[in-house]
């Protein structure tokens, strides 16, 4: 983990973002004291994102019903 003062981060912001995007963690300091921590985002699965929608009380907020099955359609036959 690397640390850098705010002045340096402001001057080379794009380079710091590229480093974070590559997986590096950076602590931003002011007068030698940490004030922020840049970290790459963690990956989320669809299940992580939608879990609150199908668990607990949040399900009561949605009125979801499955559509009725439609009758089968005729299929063309080839001879």
From TrEMBL:
Annotated transmembrane regions? none
InterPro entries xref list: Antitoxin_Phd/YefM (IPR006442), phD-YefM_TA_antitoxins (IPR051416), YefM-like_sf (IPR036165)
Question: One short Pfam family name for this protein?
Answer: PhdYeFM_antitox
- Highest taxon listed in the record's lineage: Bacteria
Which PANTHER family does the record match to this protein?
ANTITOXIN VAPB22 (PTHR35377:SF8), ANTITOXIN VAPB49-RELATED-RELATED (PTHR35377)
Tell me which NCBIfam families the record gives: phd_fam (TIGR01552)
Q: Which family does it belong to?
A: Belongs to the phD/YefM antitoxin family.
Query: Briefly, what is this protein's role?
Result: Antitoxin component of a type II toxin-antitoxin (TA) system.
State the protein's name.
Answer: Antitoxin
What is the originating organism of this protein?
A: Candidatus Contendobacter odensis Run_B_J11
